[in-house]
C-alpha cells in the first residue's frame, strides 16, 4: 500500500524538521521509494537538505493537499510531509471534510502522523488534543525527541503515553545530537549522508563517529515503523 507520513507536532522548536530529514535519509539508505513535501514557505528543511526529493505543499489549500494523495497513489511509495508549526488545523479540516481516514483503506492508502514531542507541557497538551480528536482512527507515532531534554516522566505520569499505545500508537525515541555538531551539519545545507562522508563538512573524526552512531540508533527506531 502507498503511505503518507505527516511529520508534525504543531509546536515550534521540537525538532519536526530533523525527524523529517531522518526519515528521508532512512528511505534513501534503504532504497525505499519516497517523495517529500515541505509546508514551510521560508525555512523548509526537506527543500533545503533533500531538494532532489522534495516539492512544496500549501497546507491551507485543499487542492495542494489533494495532490499528496494523488502522488502517493500514482506509485507504491512513501510520501513524507514536513508540517510547519501552526498548520495542524488546516490538516484536520482537510482530513475531516474529505473523510480521508474513513476512505483511505479502500484507496490502498495508509496515513501515519508522527507527533514530535519535547519533554515539556505544551507537547503533552497537544498530544492529549490529538488523541481526543482522532482516537484510534489515525495511526500515530509518538516521537520523543531529546533535543530539549531527556526526562519524559511528565508524559509517562500523565497516562497519555499509555493511552496512545492502547489506541495503537507506537513510540520512537530520538536521542539528542550536540548543538554544535548539528550546526556544522546544517551549515552546508547537505544531507546527513554528506555530513559524515564528505571531507569538507567541518566535522572532526570523533564528531563523524558520533553522528554515525546517532544515525544508526535513530534508524533503528524508525525501522520499527517504516520497516
* CATH fold group: Rossmann fold
Helix percentage = 40-55%
Query: Could you tell me the number of beta strands?
Result: 7
Strand content is 15-25%
CATH superfamily: P-loop containing nucleotide triphosphate hydrolases
Main attributes?
227 residues; alpha/beta; Rossmann fold; seven-stranded parallel β-sheet; 18% strand; globular
In short:
Helix content is about 50%, strand content about 20%. It has helices at about 15-30, 45-50, 60-75, 90-95, 100-105, 120-135, 155-160, 160-165, 180-185, 190-195, 205-225, and strands at about 1-10, 35-40, 55, 80, 110-115, 140-145, 170-175.
Protein described:
With 227 residues, the chain is an alpha/beta fold. It has one domain (2-226): P-loop containing nucleotide triphosphate hydrolases (Rossmann fold, 3-Layer(aba) Sandwich), CATH 3.40.50. 50% of the residues lie in helices and 18% in strands. It has helices spanning 16-29, 45-49, 62-74, 88-97, 100-107, 121-134, 153-158, 160-166, 179-187, 192-197, 205-226; strands at 2-8, 34-38, 54-56, 78-82, 109-117, 139-145, 170-174. The protein has a seven-stranded parallel sheet, sandwiched between helices. α2 links the parallel β2 (34-38) and β3. The radius of gyration is 17 Å and the shape is globular. The two termini are 13 Å apart. The mean pLDDT is 92.
Amino acid at each position: 500500500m502507498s503511505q503518507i507520513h505527516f511529520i508534525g507536532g504543531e509546536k515550534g522548536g521540537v525538532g519536526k524538521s530533523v525527524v523529517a530529514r531522518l526519515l528521508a535519509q532512512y528511505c534513501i539508505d534503504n532504497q525505499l521509494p519516497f517523495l517529500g513535501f515541505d509546508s514551510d514557505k521560508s525555512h523548509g528543511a526537506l527543500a533545503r537538505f533533500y531538494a532532489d526529493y522534495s516539492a512544496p505543499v500549501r497546507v491551507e489549500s485543499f487542492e495542494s493537499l489533494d495532490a499528496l494523495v494523488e502522488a502517493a497513489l500514482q506509485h507504491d511509495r512513501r510520501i513524507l510531509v514536513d508540517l510547519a508549526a501552526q498548520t495542524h488545523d488546516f490538516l484536520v479540516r482537510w482530513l475531516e471534510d474529505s473523510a480521508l481516514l474513513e476512505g483511505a483503506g479502500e484507496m490502498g492508502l495508509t496515513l501515519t502522523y508522527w507527533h514530535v514531542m519535547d519533554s515539556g507541557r505544551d507537547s503533552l497538551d497537544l498530544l492529549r488534543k490529538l488523541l481526543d480528536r482522532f482516537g484510534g482512527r489515525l495511526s500515530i507515532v509518538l516521537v520523543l525527541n531529546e533535543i530539549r531534554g531527556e526526562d519524559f516522566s511528565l508524559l509517562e505520569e500523565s497516562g497519555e503515553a499509555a493511552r496512545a499505545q492502547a489506541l495503537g500508537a507506537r513510540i520512537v525515541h530520538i536521542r539528542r545530537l550536540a548543538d554544535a555538531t548539528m550546526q556544522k551539519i546544517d551549515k552546508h545545507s547537505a544531507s546527513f549522508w554528506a555530513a559524515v562522508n564528505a571531507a569538507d563538512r567541518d566535522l572532526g573524526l570523533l564528531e563523524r563517529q558520533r553522528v554515525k552512531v546517532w544515525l544508526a540508533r535513530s534508524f533503528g527506531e524508525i525501522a520499527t515503523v517504516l520497516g
